[in-house]
Amino acid sequence: MTVWCLVELDGDAAADASLRALTLARGLVPDAAGGSGVAAVVFGAPPAGELAAYGAADVYVVSGVDGYAPRAWARVLAGLLGTAAHDTAAGGTGAGGTAVDGTGGSRHAVVAAGTEHGNEVLAHLGAITGLPMAANCVAVSPSGAVALDLVRQRWAGLLLEEAVLDAPAALLTVATDAVAAVPAAAPGAAPVSITVHEVTAAVTGADLTVRAVETPGGTGGVSLATARVVVGGGRGVGSAAGFTSLEELAALLGGVVGVSRVVTSEGWRPHSMQVGQTGTKITPDLYLACGISGAIQHFAGCSGARHIIAVNTDASAPMMTRADYAVVGDLHEVLPALVKALRDRALGDNRRVRFFRVKVVRRFPHPARGFTQGLFASGGTIWESGGQYGMSVLRRYELGAAQVAAEAPLPPDLFAEGICQVGGSIVQLTWKERVALRWDAATLQIAERIRFNREGWGICAVPADKYASSGRRAADVPAGEVVTSDGSSELVRRDPVSLEPRAVVHVRCAGNRVRWLNDLAWAGGLVWANVLGTTCLAGIDLDSGTVTDLVDARAAGERHTHPQMLMNGITPLVRPGEFLLTGKGWRSIRQVRLIPDRDRGQIGRMLAGPEH
Amino acid sequence: MEILVCVKRVPTVGGAITLTADSRAIDTKASGFTISPHEECAVEEAVRLAERFGGSVTVVSLGPAEAQEQLRACLALGASAAVLIETAPGVETGPIATAAALHSVAASGAFDLILLGNEASDTGGYQVGIRLAHLLGMPVATGAKAITVPDDGSSLSASRSYRGVTETFTLPLPCVVTVKEGINLPRYPSLPGRLRAKRAAVRRVPAEAAGTAAVTAGDVRMTRLRVPDVPRKQATVLGQGAAAVPALVAVLAELGVIS
Q1: Which CATH number fits domain A352-611: 3.40.190.170, 1.20.1290.10, 2.120.10.30, 3.30.1360.70?
Q2: CB contact, 8 Å: B174 with chain A?
Q3: Rama region for A155: left / alpha / beta (φ>0; ψ in -120 to 50; rest)
Q4: A229-347 domain in CATH 3.30.1300.10?
């Protein structure tokens, strides 16, 4: 008997749903063979160690299918099944879990995660082989010689079906929310070995007709499926306009708004925000359900919440009785009062912000008086990014020099924005072009165009050992990640090479979102951002998004009548607490020192942004 | 564009699921029936495409005589013909046999596009559309949240979101596509539509004639259903109206949602 498990990849690692599938698949391999495991099948680079840890003895690495083509993937699995069936018939042993015929369970099994890909590929495999397929299983056990007893989800898990599967090979997918992913061996046990087999896909042209073309989805903000806090709204919200207080509350709690089906069928909010059987399944720490009575299909989507608080006028609504906490009342009365209470509470927390002003200790020329969009210092060398379409440049000069030492223009359709150094490269963002440039720092040649999923404003490199207190300059240490801004209150932590997003940080000060985050720099364990249209520099704790330090750099400002000649361009110096600051078209670059100050209403000025 | 939409009669479940005494079906004495939300959107999508390209929408269902009710609801939404593959009362047909039965109808007409829901909301088998496509020798895309067809109607692009990425599949016609709720906002049936649907003829084909005699042969065999245990919680009532806000703030702090 061979148990195959299709393993999907999420980045470089196995998808969580696939680890759950591996865990269930392991239970199908009879113990008799001693230490035999599952045969993982991977379309892509296999995370072999992880697969071994979850009980895979073999991994089949498939080449010859580029990207996701469901029928072609199924054809490959059908081929593996066919080979295994042949081996068994010849008296040999299949790869992976080897066992004598008839020792419990079906002859063979193919297991996949109950994801859109897993269900789709296994349904194709069922159609190709004529075998039955059981979707979204939560438990499987052998029954007699070849049959399996299984339990699977109906109604998205609201109902369970007990069933018998009697077939030469069992095709199963594993419910993504019902089986925990458990490693095979206890930590510290002897390392498990895994045999890697290369497989070249034998597929037909027709198998490749339908294949996925991937494009980046969404804006990369907090998604409903992964949000820590979801504020839910139902019929009780009453109208599209009624969501204002839910959205305010969600913003204060760092969460997102989700809705019940009635809200989307009324057209108040789009279906992408729907929680439930035919919407998104959510798993937040807190689900705050407002004006939602709690149809059973809605519970199919929110039962993964760790805690539920319900607000409803009807104390007997199912949501109110199934919640952990309930508030009996009109959400239009309760939520505004809650929002106000949270705001008042946050304002009481101002003492946690350290305030500074700046003292200008030296002025340097600002060569070419560029339209500064990014600035950083590497020793005495300054790199500067200048913006505008048709005029964008990357410049290099020595601090104190009146002339630019070297500069390279950008193509005229690109508007240059923030820059940072990653290894021997300068990474430069562009404003709205959804592309970043990697420059060779030595030759000032563009080495690569990198796809980028947001507007580009500021960027800084964060060293891998970011909290180690070394005397080294940030630019000399390998970047563990880069952080980017886009003028919103969100920073995005990214892979330093591919710029793929890793996490979104919501920046807050005294409970309020800090918008207009612009040029970024890393210093002293904080990300420093200049807030567009103000003279404020915010020192941001990257893990929490909290502004812990607030600098009013008004003293370093330069008087200009042109509204665009704003402060922009900030870079730390080797000396702690000192920065270089400049602005668009400014005459000079100022070296400033931070001087502790007291609260003079800086928070309000920072939060107001450029509108005031 | 000739379009076939496959729909299924499923129980309407509200506050809780109750089972029949033999635990083999949902007790529907107190509830009504409907079609899956995904399928309602499939009908809407088909009607929109027929409005744009001309042609007609046929709906087909495999189920008991009562499923005519659901077919008429689809006619009221703009479908122009309906076929019922009629099964005996109380019989649950497995996905392999369902696909075979739908194939007998799908192959008998020259359809450019066959739409289904991504999965039936009751049994959730996730496979009938794909099995049907294989029987028809047509390409298939599943889980579509958007369908675009160029003006010449020669091909179709179906897209969906997966792991934060948008996947787009482009298929030549004829093809099979399964859709998900959210692809559109289905219209309410018009009064003339409802009157027309009431009078329209539903063509009835016995399931045996459609090759579905052995409804579960070779398929997963259900032995019984059960409602999963939900840990009963006793909600702590924090208070009434805005007076509950201080207690609510304290709970938020206790849960670590605010610092």
Answers
A1: 2.120.10.30
A2: no
A3: left
A4: no
